[in-house]
Design brief:
The chain is an alpha/beta fold and 320 residues long. It has eleven helices and 14 strands. The protein has two domains: 176 residues, Rossmann fold; 63 residues, Alpha-Beta Plaits. Bound molecules: adenosine-5'-triphosphate and magnesium ion. Adenosine-5'-triphosphate binds next to helix 1.
Length: 320
C-alpha cells in the first residue's frame, strides 16, 4: 500500500453563510503531483490554507493527515513537514533575494553557516545568483516567483503546496518552473498544486481534481477526465454547396452548419473511425475540402464541469 502524504475527509469551510468547501475528500500518495483545478473563488486557496494549518477547517470536518501527522492534534509537526508557496508572493521587496533566503533560514532555525550554505545552493539552483544581492523589488515577476519557491524549499520540506505557481509567467518561465517541479518530485517530494492553466495540470499532475460548488466535481488522471466529456469530433468543410448537401445525406447523424457548409460528426479520432467516415464519403462520391479532428482536452472537461457552460466546439444542435 502506498503511503498518503495528504489525506483529508469531508473538508468543510464556510465564511459567514457562504459555503466554500462542502465535504471535500483528498488523498495524495507520497511522491506524486496532485492538481486542484477550479474557477475563481472555488475554494482552492482555502483548501491549501486549511491543509497547511494557516486557516482552521469547520467543525464536522473529518480527519486530516499531512505527512502522517494529525493536523488537528499536531499542527507543529505538520508545519515542520511542509512548505507553502502562496498565491501572493511572500517575498519582501525591500531586502535582497539573499536576505529573503536567510530570513527563511532563520525561521527554520538553521545555524548561520547552514543557512548561508542552503541559501547559496538554492539561489544557484533557481538561477538567482546574479540577482541575489539586489533588492527583490527590482526582480521581474518570474524571478520573484522563483525566489518564492526557493524560499519555500529552505526547510527541505517533503510536501509542498504551490498555489498558482506560474500565474503571470511567460511561457519560457512557466516551462522552467515545470522542470523545477518535476525535479522535486523525482527527489520524492509530494506536490499539491493549484492552477488556472489546464495545460499545466495536464503536463504535471498524476491526478487532477476539479473543484466546483464546494465539491470535487470529478477526479482522475488527465486521460480519465478527458474521457468524461464528449467533445471529440471530426469536422468536414465543403466549398461546393452541392457536395455539402450530398455529404450531409451520406453522413446521417452529422450536425449541420449550413452557413459554413460544414458537418460535424462525433468521433474518438481513431484511424478506424476516420476511415469509416471517409468510406461513406467515397461511396457518395463527394470529397471534403477540409477535415479536422478535434479531441477533447482539459478545457472541455473544465467547461463541462464548472459553471454549466456549453462545451466549446459542440454546436447547439447537439442538444436536440
Ligand atoms: N477570509 C475570508 N473571509 C471571507 N470570505 C473569504 C475569505 N477567504 C476566502 N473567502 C471566500 O471564499 C471563496 C473561495 O476563495 P478562494 O480564495 O479559496 O478561491 P480560489 O479557488 O483560490 O480562487 P482564485 O482562483 O481566484 O484564487 C471566495 O468566495 C472568497 O471570497
Ligand atoms: Mg486562489
Amino acid at each position: 500500500m502506498t503511503n498518503l502524504a495528504i489525506a483529508a475527509n469531508g473538508l468543510r469551510k464556510s465564511y459567514d453563510d457562504k459555503v466554500v468547501l462542502d465535504g471535500v475528500d483528498l488523498a495524495v500518495p507520497e511522491g506524486t503531483i496532485f492538481s486542484l483545478l477550479g474557477p475563481n473563488g472555488a475554494g482552492k486557496t482555502t483548501a491549501v490554507k486549511i491543509l497547511s494549518t494557516l486557516v482552521s477547517a469547520d467543525p464536522g470536518t473529518g480527519d486530516i493527515h499531512i505527512g502522517g501527522h494529525d493536523l488537528a492534534a499536531d499542527p507543529q509537526a505538520v508545519r515542520a513537514a511542509i512548505g507553502v508557496t502562496g498565491q501572493f508572493s511572500a517575498v519582501d521587496g525591500l531586502i535582497t533575494g539573499e536576505e529573503n533566503m536567510l530570513l527563511m533560514a532563520d525561521l527554520h532555525h538553521l545555524s548561520r553557516s547552514e543557512g548561508r550554505r542552503t541559501a547559496a545552493e538554492l539561489l544557484e539552483r533557481f538561477d538567482l545568483v546574479e540577482a541575489a544581492g539586489k533588492p527583490a523589488s527590482s526582480y521581474s515577476g518570474g524571478m520573484k516567483r522563483r525566489l518564492d519557491i526557493a524560499m519555500t524549499l529552505v526547510g527541505n520540506p517533503r510536501i509542498i503546496f504551490l498555489d498558482e505557481p506560474t500565474t503571470g509567467l511567460d511561457p519560457r518561465s512557466r516551462h522552467t518552473m515545470w522542470q523545477i517541479i518535476r525535479e522535486l518530485v523525482r527527489e520524492g517530494v509530494t506536490v499539491f498544486l493549484t492552477t488556472q492553466y489546464l495545460e499545466e495540470a495536464d503536463q504535471l499532475a498524476d491526478r487532477i481534481a476539479v473543484l466546483n460548488d464546494g465539491r470535487i466535481a470529478a477526479e482522475g488522471t488527465a486521460d480519465q477526465l478527458k474521457r468524461l466529456v464528449p467533445g471529440g469530433h471530426v469536422r468536414l468543410r465543403f466549398a461546393d454547396p452541392a457536395a455539402y448537401r450530398n455529404a450531409a445525406l451520406a453522413l446521417r447523424g452529422a450536425t449541420r452548419d449550413d452557413k459554413a457548409l460544414a458537418l460535424q460528426i462525433p468521433s474518438d479520432g481513431s484511424q478506424r473511425d476516420l476511415r469509416a467516415i471517409l468510406d461513406r464519403l467515397d461511396t457518395a462520391a463527394v470529397e471534403a475540402d477540409e477535415l479536422t479532428v478535434h479531441t477533447p482536452d482539459l478545457d472541455d472537461v473544465f467547461f463541462a464541469l464548472t459553471g454549466g457552460a456549453d462545451i466549446p466546439n459542440q454546436p447547439k444542435e447537439n442538444a436536440r
